[in-house]
Amino acid sequence: MAALVFLKSMSLMFHSINYHFIKIRGEHVEAWAILFYITHLLKGAVLFITIVLIGTGWTFIKHIIADKDKKVFMVVIPLQVLANIADIIIAESEEGDKEYSTWLYIFFLVDLLCCAAILFPVVWSIRHLQEASATDGKAATNLRKLKLFRQFYVMVVCYIYFTRIIVSLLKITVAFQYTWLNEMFKEMATYVFFVLTGYKFRPVPSHPYFQVDTDDEDCETEVLTETGVYKTKVINRTMVQSTTTNVEAIDEEREVMLSKRESSHEYD
């Protein structure tokens, strides 16, 4: 998330410097434009990687990436790179060129496919939490996680819907002198999405993902059954510790009694 914010900041900085030279010279400086396109491409890839990692519950629900999650990465990352390349070609082409319309359709199609693909890990995590809340004893914690993931799912859908559809419709409908509203609303929506995501998944003591289980750990022990066969049973560690303490206390009392008895025999 920190890398995403850093790349986003660098991208905006290079973009503003490029526009500054366009204002002064009437054309952009290639060096600043290239730096902007590089950071813009990396930012787009890291954004979708971050959403997929949060959506899969990585470091929150599980500490490994499953095979189906890896397949999502293998699909989303190349598509997102292709979408950013199409976006760069669109920005460098004139609207009257044939290539402009072709790459514009490619960009919209690929970008929508990426947006649809990143929703699958979130749905899988929600289903996983639903199953865990029904079977696991810690239902309250799982329900809190489930509620948080549902909120994140709604946030992702709203972000995609607003930045991909509403902003595009706004760009088509408003007059030419108000086209800057397109970028303004897009950047504002991105900022709100980043802030809400960071706030929802912030590391606080009351967060359901960072709560330590208060239940005592269980341990295994072998018990001799009536048939003479050893059977493994799982018992509570606290019970084992208390039983061990009681046995040690009884042994100490027995040793004290034996020592007193021996001393009394010596006097006799």
TrEMBL record:
Domain GOST seven transmembrane: 3-204
Main location: membrane
Superkingdom as given in the UniProt entry: Eukaryota
One Pfam family linked to the record: GOST_TM
Keyword Signal: yes
Spans through the membrane: 34-60, 72-91, 103-124, 152-178
InterPro entries: GOST_TM, GPR107/GPR108-like
Mode of membrane association: Multi-pass membrane protein
GO cellular-component term (any): Golgi apparatus
Keywords: Membrane, Signal, Transmembrane, Transmembrane helix
Subcellular location: Membrane
PANTHER family, per database record: LUNG SEVEN TRANSMEMBRANE RECEPTOR (PTHR21229), RE59932P (PTHR21229:SF2)
UniProt-recorded name of the protein: Protein GPR107
